[in-house]
Amino acid sequence: MRRMALRPGRVQQIHKREERGIDRSNEPFKIEKFYRRPGLIVVQRPAFEPGYTHHLREIYPHWGIGVSTCLKDGQPVKHPRLRFDHYVDLVKVWEDQEFIYVEDMYVDVLIYERLYYHIIDMEEFGQALFNREMSLAEARRVLENTQRFVDSMKRSRLSYATWKQKYGVHRRHL
Fold this sequence. Notes:
By secondary structure, the protein is an alpha+beta fold.
């Protein structure tokens, strides 16, 4: 079995059969909920900082995105500091026998529900490309996935709930 090289500080590892993972900074974390279905991987873990109780991440490998939502007592809440509703990482996903690997591909989109979105970290993406830390094929895929996701969010009236219903698990093509 061939193992892919992990880019330091970029890859989260989710254990498939145990309630644990390893975050991007190589720190272990406890998984409180984990499930998969075609086109979707869901992981819930304790919050990273005060102001909410849990961090929910819904990963859509087909779209190349991971959508993070802060939860407090089971209900979605705005991030306590940055006030976004959903944080979208552009990602690459692969797996082996033990783990699902979710690599952050630099570009992120902050969703402010029904108001606007904000694309961030393009300078990190550009620097990684300039430093040849990613291939041109990977860079092209990230930019195409970003555009495809943003276009579909606009068609969903900037509502993640609407996007999820129309495009999420059903994988409807644009």
